[in-house]
Amino acid sequence: MVARTRESAQAALSYLRAGDNRGGGATRAFDGMLRQFVSADANGLVSIRGICKVAGLGGNPPRDGTYEYYVSEPVVSDDYKGVGAFMLAAIELGR
User: Fold this and answer.
1) Which strand (E) or helix (H) includes residue 46?
2) CA distance 82 to 49
3) pLDDT, position 2
4) 45: domain range?
5) C-alpha to C-alpha distance for 26 and 32, rounded to whole angstroms
6) CA distance 34 to 55
7) What span, in angstroms and rounded, lies between the C-alpha atoms of 85 and 11?
8) CA of 17: how far to CAs of 55, 79, 87, 93, in Å?
9) 89: which residues sit within 8 A by CB, 6+ positions away?
10) Is the predicted pLDDT of residue 1 greater than 60, yes or no?
């Protein structure tokens, strides 16, 4: 399984917005994101890694939505799609 920041953050956010953090699943997901994807450099600049740069369906060349297609897409740091979902999940958790 390939872990990606945006999808992890969106899942945690979905659970939190639905009021469903039973068993602390959303909290554990967020803590896992902190451990696996978030780092700070020597100057304290925070970076979020592991964000799928682009994914979608259709187009030319065709994007078929398969697992193979998804995991072949470039992975970047600090892309707005992953950072935004991460920030919303952090706000919902009060962090």
Assistant:
1) strand 46-48
2) 9
3) 58
4) 5-93
5) 10
6) 23
7) 9
8) 24, 23, 14, 10
9) 9, 10, 12, 13, 16, 26, 30, 33
10) no
**The total number of residues written for the chain in this structure:** 95
Domain count, the chain: 1
DSSP string, 57-93: SBTTTTB---HHHHHHS-EESS-HHHHHHHHHHHHHH
Find residue 47's DSSP bridge partners.
39
9 CB-contact burial (10 Å; exposed 0-12 / middle 13-18 / buried 19+): buried
Confidence of residue 79 (pLDDT cuts 50, 70, 90): very high
Q: Which two tokens stand for residue 75?
A: 């992975």
* pLDDT tens track for 3-62: 666 777 777 777 777 776 666 777 888 888 899 999 999 999 999 998 888 877 888 878
Q: With beta carbons less than 8 A apart as the criterion, state whether 40 and 47 touch.
A: yes
The sign one gets for the Cα dihedral 39, 41, 42, 43 is negative
